[in-house]
Amino acid sequence: MRVPELKVRALLADLLVHEGRPVSADRLVDDLWGEDPPGNPTNTLQTKVSQLRRALGPGGRDLVVFQPVGYALRTDEIDALRFAGLLDRARATADLRTKAGLLSDALALWRGPAFGDFRDEEFARAAATRLDEQRLTALEEQAEVRLALGEHSQLADELGEPVTEQPLRERLRAAHMRALYRSGRQNEALAGYTELRQRLADELGLDPGPELVDLYQAILRQDPALAPVPAPATSAARPRTNLPVPLTDLVGRQEAVTEVRALLGSSRLVTLTGPGGVGKTRLALAAAAGLDFPDGSWLIEFAGTTGAVADAVAAELGIRDEPGSRPGVPPPDSPARLAAALRGQELLLVLDNCEHLVEPVAELVDLLLRAAPGLRVLATSQESLAVPGEVLYPVAPLDSSAAVQLFTARAAPGRTLDAESASWAEVICRRLDGLPLALELAAARVRVLGVRGVAERLDDRFRLLATAHRGRPARRQTLRAVIDWSWEQLTEPQRAALCALAAHPGGCTLEAAEAVGVDLDLLDQLVNRSMVVADPPRYRLLESIAAYCLERLEADDPTFRRRDEFYTGLAERARPHLHGHAQREWLRRLDDEALNLRAVTGSRRLAEALTWYWYLRGRHREGHRHLAAVSEGSSWEAGFAMLVGARRAEVEEFPDARSRWFMAHVYLHLGDVAAAEPLLDRALADFRALDDRWGEAAALAGRAKQAMFQGDLPTAERSGTESLAIFTDLGDRWGQLQASDILGYLAEVTGDHEHAGRLHREGLRIAEDLRLWTDVSYRLSSLGRIALLNGDPARSHEFHERGMRLAAEQSNPFAEDFARVGLGLVARRAGDLDAAERLFQESLDWNRRLEADYGMPFYGVTLILAELGFIAEQRGDAALARTLHVKGLAAAREIGDPRSVALAQEGLAGVAVLEGAAEEALRLLEEATALRESVGAPLPPAERGDVDRIRAALGDGGTVR
């Protein structure tokens, strides 16, 4: 594959850096163009994406996909991933020749520096550095394996160039020195050490590490241990070890295994931390299994230990008291005896489940590491040992993909779940937080309950996941036992704090934690014990831990009251900021607290504070449910009822101008101009009297929309422009979005497609920034309309498809229908009358249901009837075409839109041509033209296709050809 264009290659590099994760359009534009973006960055980026898809071949569209949050590259055929996979396989095998071959295959994938021309760009710099480090580490590992295989002569020459390029890497230098010495080139080996020592002193002010110093001294004295050794046979005995052989595959931890092994290569104490059941022990064993130590790798399990930890270690290693102690002289204590026994040995200790013995284990580890330079320690604990030199490796739950893979492997070995079961499996994995132990317990229930049955019973998870598994320690046989083990390690204040945090289903901030009595010190203690997940500024509990704690809280516990008061106060503080400059910030803040806000029920204060938030976020059903519970019959509840199709509401009294405006706004959304007009006029007058500029701008936007329905284009332009100016001054981006949408539609109607496209693209950026996904859908479809008018049906189809998918995801049938109509327009212009008819008929059926539910005509019906009428006319079915256009004309007159009336007349002109009535056809066309011109909206050239086709069917003398 060749990608010739620089920016397209940069786009590919940026997507590769994110390894399948979506990247927002704004981020991509910033990465590709920095402070000098193109005039139309969104459109230019879309062009680059299209070029990349073409460069990737026939499957390019499936590889570069668009999601609501941005673009992503979907492919496993990436050299970096293949490289990592080969490294994992190499490190997992004990056979030296196999290991050497896998490492060679991995290094052969490199054909130049990572990310090539873009490695110094900010977006690629970190990833390039990481890959470079992995390559060099692989090269060092390969060199050490080849030395063990006796290939020192070749290595002595081959490592010269890498050492020159990386003169300060001590591990690489050590391999080169060994290769030189074993090849009879002792002076060169010593010179290499001297060069490194001088460079370290000059450039970093450091001395070589102790391992390299020891190697230098061994070369000076020509230590026999450095002599070449015969390559070991593949059947050679493994080092002494008591590590158990796993009975199942390790899923989803390949990268973690690699990282832990790398840490053990550079650090002498690595501690895996994380909550119970996350898989710390399994990861530690997998990492240790691939490492070779001359004196072995040893597992010491502390879970059942209550006495001296040094005795437990000594017993596992087979170290006994020394005989012959003199009478009256006490023998050395266990830690000292153990330290003396390990001095001079090179081994790995895997200390498992240290959390209940943290202090004695930490003291022992500190002593042993100081006494035994060849010792490495890999510990697992729910909290840090806090020993100098310790490196922490937090073990996170499995991501969604790996969690589903593990669950499936345990629930249905060797089989693939069907689509429905796979969907339920995702629910199980999400609700069990990706905890491997919980997933395995759940999988064991599938044989009896099925996947869906397990998912539906997770609210009672502790009973569901209580089947004991023989062969496991008691503390790991059930989900409750796992959490019991962690709970027993907590103090009473820590337990109370954990229960208080469990009252926040969406996690919480420090401010919220303090509101329910959890101070910073307690929070810090729980984070350190892996009972709370910290992602500052938020803190959360895994769902199973939260459920465990909630069992311990009574329904009337004051924690709930304090929580409800905090979030109600937060919503009230947010309310005024949802209009104006701080809108984006407070929308995001309320988004973060969505689950916590939903936990507060039956509060009129909360419902009133969140009404506008619910509307902005398109959560109309949620808003209606809350408002119906606390203020049924109010103007806001009535408006939400109409938005969700619950009922058509008639409100007699309004408490203020904004509630009156909102009802008018809802009526206009549904196309009921007659009901909206008096409410809007009154609201606008009240806003101006109150000097409420936000309300004035909102009412002006409504008046502009009303004028568009009525064909009053001058009023639409004047009101829309004034509204946009006020909203811009106030910094209210939602308002800017509404006003610019009307002005964009107005520009489309008058034929200024360039201006319309500019307004819709700006609206798209605003909607994406505010995460108003329904508005994003509308803007995408609007851009699809402009692309169609500009003669780009393929681009139009893409915009409308994206808009329709997003609308469906948001469960917004209005936005979905807007996109569906656009797809119908594309299909008819492309000559696919069958597809167009199907789409328009689906839209007509939906609109008719709305008319029945709301008892009013909908504006969109006129366009749909016209399109269906044109399809019938193009097929030569004059009777059906006339019926459809007559219905369209009646609907247009009822709504009062002159342009819709003109459209129906143009359709009837086509029918007249079919019937041979040339004079009637001409009359209808002239009346339609006059009507359009009367409202200042003559038919633009890009929309004259049907009229030109009908006129072409009439001869020059006005007769039907």
Description:
- With 961 residues, the protein is mainly α.
- Among the domains are: 6-75, Arc Repressor Mutant, subunit A; 161-227, Serine Threonine Protein Phosphatase 5, Tetratricopeptide repeat; 267-319 and 334-394, Rossmann fold (3-Layer(aba) Sandwich); 400-485; 555-651; 859-961, Serine Threonine Protein Phosphatase 5, Tetratricopeptide repeat, CATH 1.25.40.
- It is 64% helix and 5% strand.
- It is built from 48 helices and ten strands.
- The strands form three sheets. Strands 4-5-6-3-7 form a five-stranded parallel sheet, sandwiched between helices. A three-stranded antiparallel sheet has the order 8-10-9.
- β5, α17 and β6 form a beta-alpha-beta unit.
- α5 crosses α13 (254-266), α24 (492-502) packs across α26 (520-528) and α34 (657-669) packs antiparallel against α35.
- It starts with 5 loop residues before the first helix and ends in a 9-residue tail after the last helix.
- Mean pLDDT is 87; it is low at 229-239 and 323-332.
- Belongs to the AfsR/DnrI/RedD regulatory family.
- It holds the Pfam family BTAD.
